[in-house]
């Protein structure tokens, strides 16, 4: 007689994982969350949107990419959940949407309850930081497709924005100012190149290059900075024309997505020091600057385009909220391009 457990699926381990994560998930709630006794769906009270004149729902989905492989190799699982929220929820913030709720999906070769609880706990902690609820998720055991220690991680989020308050390219004008918000590290993009560098050079996750204040592996797993609440505060202040979340493609390519075809963004490389982690990877991997530019955030995780007469006030607001920020560049007449000079 053959059982599901014989096929590699441990139902009891999945139930144990759910029990372990419950207390941390409970911290990622909003008043609008309604419990579904069956647990098959997450419920959110949409009457909370009745004060909007014309509410638009915004949605985003993303994953953590190959950063999960480094987490697996180092046995550190709570930070990649934080990364997932940064990738999903900060995309919602770009249009000015307030994040409402999020769901997650974890595929793994074997359910290890403590590991799954750490991953989901990290998601819940980051949702609390972002001001959104974690209303549900799924953990799927895929024996035979994934090794016992392998996993992948994805999620989706929903937010809301007033129709006449949507931020974006149509608001941007020549003379506007581009502000940078510092990243916490590599965030969750470019890890395929990182892994290639590790595979082809003397660098290892245990390496401690002189320029770094900690081992390389620890630096690489630094969780993504969550910008959502800071972006929304800027939006409420009326300072912002558009945001750009600096993810895959790098600074210039992502900022160009937030420009109309009548302007350019001219960005000043000398306005900030690229963090040491990026310089270490570039040096050991002999990575051309052009590749660095289009692969990594290079220390800028989010950009804001603001009116020139409010730039100083916007910088003060970000600084008061603990976000390192600076004048990155300016908007000039052009053809919708962003360039680093």
UniProtKB/TrEMBL annotation:
Family: Belongs to the AIR synthase family.
Superkingdom of source: Bacteria
Keywords: ATP-binding, Cytoplasm, Ligase, Nucleotide-binding, Purine biosynthesis
Cellular localisation: Cytoplasm
BP-aspect Gene Ontology terms: 'de novo' IMP biosynthetic process; adenine biosynthetic process
Pathway: Purine metabolism; IMP biosynthesis via de novo pathway; 5-amino-1-(5-phospho-D-ribosyl)imidazole from N(2)-formyl-N(1)-(5-phospho-D-ribosyl)glycinamide: step 2/2
A Pfam family per the record: AIRS_C
A single GO molecular function term of this UniProt record: phosphoribosylamine-glycine ligase activity
GO CC aspect terms: cytosol
Domain PurM-like N-terminal: 56-161
Catalytic activity, EC: 6.3.3.1
Catalytic activity: 2-formamido-N(1)-(5-O-phospho-beta-D-ribosyl)acetamidine + ATP = 5-amino-1-(5-phospho-beta-D-ribosyl)imidazole + ADP + phosphate + H(+)
Gene assigned in the entry: purM
InterPro entries noted in UniProt: PurM-like_C_dom, PurM-like_C_sf, PurM-like_N, PurM-like_N_sf, PurM_cligase
Chief site of localization: cytoplasm
Enzyme class, spelled out: ligase
Gene3D superfamilies, A to Z: PurM-like C-terminal domain (3.90.650.10), PurM-like, N-terminal domain (3.30.1330.10)
Domain PurM-like C-terminal: from-to ranges: 173-336
Species: Actinomadura spongiicola
Protein name: Phosphoribosylformylglycinamidine cyclo-ligase
